[in-house]
Structure formats: structure tokens, C-alpha cells
Amino acid sequence: MHHDDGEVGGGAALSWPGVPDFLPALLAAVQRLLQPQLEDRACSLVGALILELLRHAGPQMAPLLPGLLAALASKLCAAEDAAMVQSLLCVLAQLMHSDQQQLLDCLAGIQLSDGRSALQACMQKWCERQIEVRTAYDIRLTTAALAGLLACPHPALDAIQ
């Protein structure tokens, strides 16, 4: 069996012939992995998967981002495992570096089941758990994103307590 690895992974995987809605189906699977009732260990690599999707299909994901962010915020609030929290914070930090305004607008517009906005819930968890972030790259990524938020004049940030 001949296999051309260049066509199996990366961005090519998002445009397989005969699978027109592959990205929405993949994001639906990711959202299932982000269900709060799922054990953290069962979905420990979902953050890395999301980062890869953003790297290869960022612009294509834009219309699907609100659903993904709602699921991510719910999982982040429920997550206890430090590695799980770190991986989800890295996703938020990467998005923060990509388009801070759009991310803040989107998170501020999402209401979670406990009545808080996704922005408020994510920022609370982020501030509580930032100290637990490990690896030099992740520390730089998340700290720089938080520093960027301090300088951001977004009105939704003023409402966070």
C-alpha cells in the first residue's frame, strides 16, 4: 500500500476530496471532547489539537469560533487538572495574540450556564491558575497575553471583578 505522508496531515487533511464539511465535523468532535462532564485525562490533548487546527485552518474556523469558545470556556471552568487548564489557557493566549478584539467580543457575548460571561469565567480561571503554567514557551505565551489584556481598553474587561 502506497502512502504519501504529505497528503495525510497538516492543512491537506482539512481539504480531503469527498469530505466537504470536514472542518465543521472535526470541530463538533472537539466540542464533544470539551464537555465539562468528561474527565480531564480523557481529553488531555484537546488543547494541542485546537492549536493545530488554528495553525492550519485559522481563517476557515472564524465562523465556527463562537461554538468552540463556548465549549472551551465551559471546560476550562470545570477543569481541575493543571495540564488540562494549561492547554486551554494556551489556546486562549494564542487567540489573544492573533485577534484580541475579536476574541474579547466573542467571549463577552457568550453566556455560560452559571450566568457569567465566558470572558469573566475564563479571566477568573486564568488569573487563579496562571502560576501553575509550566514550560518556558507556555509561560511566555500566557504571560504576554495577560500583559496585553492589561493594556487593552476593551469595555468588557472593565466589568470583570
> Judging from the principal axes of the Cα atoms, what is the shape?
globular
Straight-line N-to-C gap: 59 Å
Rg over C-alpha atoms, rounded to the nearest angstrom: 16 Å
- Can you give the helix content as a percent range? 55-70%
Let me know the largest β-sheet.
Answer: none
Strand composition percent: under 5%
Q: Structural class from helices and strands?
A: mainly alpha
Spans of at least 5 consecutive residues whose pLDDT stays below 50 are: none
Overall strand count: 0
Pattern of helices and strands: HHHHHHH
How confident overall, as mean pLDDT?
A: 89
> How many H/I helices?
7
How many separate structural domains? 1
Describe this structure in words.
It is a single chain. This protein is an all-alpha fold. The chain has one domain. It has seven helices and no strands. The protein has helices at 22-33, 46-61, 65-78, 82-108, 118-129, 136-150, 155-158. Helix 1 (22-33) packs parallel to helix 3 (65-78) and helix 3 crosses helix 4. It is globular, with a radius of gyration of 16 Å. The model has no long low-confidence stretch (mean pLDDT 89). InterPro entries: ARM-like, ARM-type_fold, TPR_IPO7/11-like. Pfam families: TPR_IPO11.
